[in-house]
Amino acid sequence: MQAVAARAIDLHKRYGAGDSEVRALDGVSLDIAAREFTAIMGPSGSGKSTLMHCLAALDTPTSGDVQIGDVTLSGLRDKALTTLRREQIGFVFQAFNLVPTLTARENILLPLYLAGRRGSFGGADREWFDTVVDTVGLRDRLTHRPSQMSGGQQQRVACARALVSKPSIVFADEPTGNLDSTSGAEVLGFLRRSVDEFDQTIVMVTHDPVAASYCDRVVFLADGRIVDEIRTPDREQILEHMTALQAAAVRGQA
Fold first, then answer.
1. How many structural domains is the chain composed of?
2. Parallel, antiparallel, or unpaired: how do β-strands 89-93 and 169-173 relate?
3. Which residue among 43, 61, 109, 156 has the highest number of C-beta atoms inside a 10 angstrom radius?
4. Model's pTM, two decimal places?
5. For residue 192, what are the domain limits?
6. Which of 120, 92, 96, 126 is CA-nearest to residue 106?
């Protein structure tokens, strides 16, 4: 049986109360297999970002539970939760979130230094640092600041930063949303390689069928619930499912 990197157990997330209550998640249960690339997709308001934020310990569900590996998040105090996010989880965001005054190398190693790790590579294995940097093609950009790099290069820095600490799982929120098609393909290619070659586990929220086609599995949400999934998807299959979900959403609003 394949190992489970993260698990959602009957997750509910509600905002507001009474007539204004919004059910962002409505009983979601989901296993994220280790060493796989999983996409979460759905129409706007379907709950996909909320689900990722709960899985990544960035938000707390109203009820239900999340497990990262064998650790149940609801049983952790704030300090332990912060440690788990820092040591077990990597993040890649649409907006890059790089520190403008730091070089690419410093941005990549920043989470390790913030964790109190010492040494010229923040306690990271030098060979692993070199592997990550060379895989994302940043060797000649390590001394450049974000303003001296293209959007695609900045996002590759963010990907390297997410992986350098060897997290158990990486969450990517629309990682190609601010990139042109060429830069987006470079970032997605790196994420795919990190799964295939480095046994990484990646969960990506995206609205883009091309981006999702890089994944092993696509999970579809609608109205806060999982409604479908595809394994080994291609762009046409994903587009067909998304079109059907969008049409259903429009009918529901009519």
1. 1
2. parallel
3. 156
4. 0.89
5. 4-253
6. 120
